[in-house]
Amino acid sequence: MFIYKSFIATLLFAASIFSQSTSYAVVKPNEGQSVHVLPYPNAIYKIIVRGNQTANQFTIVEGIVYMNEGAGNHFHMREDETFFIINGTLQFYVNGDQFCAQAGTTVYIPRNASQSVRNLNSKPVHIQILFAPSGIENYLEKITPVFDTQPVNYTIANETAALYGIVNLPVVDWKDIGCIMNGTNQLKLSSFFLIFLVIVKAFL
Prior knowledge:
The protein has helices at residues 7-18, 136-148, 154-163, 179-203; strands spanning 33-36, 44-49, 59-65, 74-76, 80-87, 89-94, 97-102, 106-109, 115-118, 125-132, 166-168. Strands 1-2-3-10-5-8 form a six-stranded antiparallel β-sheet, with helices on both faces. Strands 7-6-9 form a three-stranded antiparallel β-sheet, with helices on one face. The protein has a two-stranded antiparallel ribbon with strand order 4-11. Strand 6 (89-94) and strand 7 (97-102) form a beta hairpin. 27% of the residues are buried. Helix 2 (136-148) packs antiparallel against helix 3 (154-163). The chain is built from four helices and eleven strands; from the N terminus they run αββββββββββααβα. It is an alpha+beta fold.
C-alpha cells in the first residue's frame, strides 16, 4: 500500500533521528556525485547527501526522468523510498496500483513493495529520492560502470542489484490513466492563450 506523505515531514523525521549528532551537510547546486542509475544512456543522477553525512540514516539522490524512461519493476529489501516530484508528471506502479504524480507530489514506498515509474510526457521530470536507511549509494557506485557500457549486460546488472537487496521483476503492464494529460494541460492552456493574444492583436 502506498502512502502520500509530506516530503518536509519525512526530512524532519530523519533529521530528528540524526539530531543526536552536531554534524551537518550543505550541498550547493551542481554539487554531488554523478552516478549512472538506469540502463539508459542519459540516466545520470547525483548523490546529493550520503550516509556518512547523516549517521547512516538516509541518502538523497536527485535526477531527471526523460520521456519513455523510468525505473523498471523491482523492490528493495533494505531501504524505504520517498519520491518528491519537483516538476512534470510521472506514472507510478506500486504493489499493483497505478497513479499519476504531478509536480509537488510526494510518494512514500516501503521496502519490499514492488514499484516502477515512467515518464509519458515530452517534458523531463525533475525528482529527488530519499532512501532510508542509507546504503543505496554503494549500489549506485557499483552499477554505474555496468550501465556505462552499452549495450547493457542485464545478467550482470541483475546480479549486482541482488547483492544490494534489490530484486528486479517482470515488466509492468502499464495502463492509460491520463498521466500524459495531467502533465500537458498547462502547456495546452498557455498555447491557447498565446494564440488568442495573436488573434486579438491582428484585429486591433
